[in-house]
Each structure stands twice: as structure tokens, then as C-alpha cells.
Amino acid sequence: MARSPETEARLRAALEGHEGISEKPMMGAVCFFLDGNMVGCADLGDGDGRFMFRVGKAAQDDALAQPGAEPAILGGRRMGGLIFVAAGACDAAALRDWTARALDFARTLPPK
Description:
Elements lengths: L4 H11 L5 E6 L2 E6 L2 E7 L6 E5 L5 H5 L4 E6 L2 E10 L5 H15 L6
Antiparallel strand pairs: 1-2, 2-3, 3-4, 4-6, 5-6
């Protein structure tokens, strides 16, 4: 993964105003957390930028049916409950929806 400042800024803005949000560089990208639990990250992807959202395994099939969504595969391994979404397929409304999905899942987890 490589950093995409533009995609990072979009995700940061979408998470602005939510209590308990932090960020940390990880895996060559910037990951965002709610009370210590990963919500998602932003990276360069194939060059146009992409988001990764943690929606949980129970919600991944529904999430994969959304436009621009694909399974998160890192190091040849499919990461259960994580979804990549192309930045170009994620307008402002879609980004709000994806962030809400990820925040909803993170809220089900105990704080770290």
C-alpha cells in the first residue's frame, strides 16, 4: 500500500466531528480508528486512490454488492470483513454511507 494524501484527506473529512477518532500510519497507508478499533484507511491503490472500510464479516456480502466495492486482499490473503472501494466510485454521498457502515461496525467492538 502507498499513501494517497488526497484520499486520506477525504476520509479524514468524512470522519471529522466523530468522537474517539484517531489515525496512525500502517501498512504504508494511514488507518483511522474509533476508540482504538480500525474503521478504515486510504491508500493509492492502483494509482487513483482507494478506501478500505472495516464493515465486519456479517456485512461483507452486502457491502461487496455496492458499486466500486471489492474484497480486500493484502499479501495474497483475503481479509474478512474488510472492503476496498475505488475512490472514483465514492462520491460524497457514498463516502458518507461507507463511513457510517464502518463506524457502525466499530461501535459494536469494545474500546481498546
